[in-house]
């Protein structure tokens, strides 16, 4: 297919696209630029010559040499190579600081580390642009692969192949059991990964947290239940008839943070707070949930719940004082094993 020659109304848009392209590539040939933008090589040459006489006037309102773009004319005329040697205006645009760029690069590294990430090349290109475009050299950062990453990869394979999996699971009450499930779907919430599955031991759909799973094995047996055969609610956690209810005095700002657990709310004497009824799978799940909302939540009843918070805080304080590892587990969720 022959390259097209842009019309007059396309020329400005083309010039605005060509300059960032040349800056990003640092070095390009006329042929490469023409192929990238699907225009003729002669049109690229004309545009480059126009760029070389473009700029921003200084305080005198008259163009001086440093107010114009410049290119390596020898490379351009002799070898059809485009190299911008002097920039104007663009250098004054806001840039990420070195720390900001490092933080974004770390996040992109984590994203690219997710198994079967389809856009790793694109993510790599974005990281390279952040490195070049920062106001300073970003700090060297690296995201270590977690234990759950390998588990996630195995489960993805099982879901794709519609194969059952077996694993050892530690539930929220620190009980260890061997489970055999039909994996149906993988979800994530905050920094945690979960698998929705039909549990053959429980005879129903259960949600398992990946960092509580170990010794995961794909079984050479086809799943007996598929996502279309069972009901998978839109929310990750669901209430159950076996849930326990806890009444708390809660800051309105904290309501969105634990909305999954709230069954109902009523007005409070303090306009900035509400009285909320929480539904939890187990009373033992309450400790980390409340402690994770310092100053925003106070347990009112039942008495068992207040005692649970007191015991949880005492255990945590004791471990902190002994400089030992922090307590295992997390705030427990509805329907999460």
TrEMBL record:
Boundaries of every WCX domain copy: 243-317
PROSITE patterns assigned: WYL
Superkingdom of origin organism: Bacteria
Pfam families membership: HTH_PafC, WCX, WYL
InterPro entries per the UniProt record, alphabetical: CBASS_pafABC_assoc_protein (IPR051534), PafC-like (IPR028349), PafC_HTH (IPR043839), WCX_dom (IPR057727), WYL_dom (IPR026881)
Domain WYL: 151-217
PafC HTH domain residues: 10-132
Name of protein: WYL domain-containing protein
Organism this protein belongs to: Paramicrobacterium chengjingii
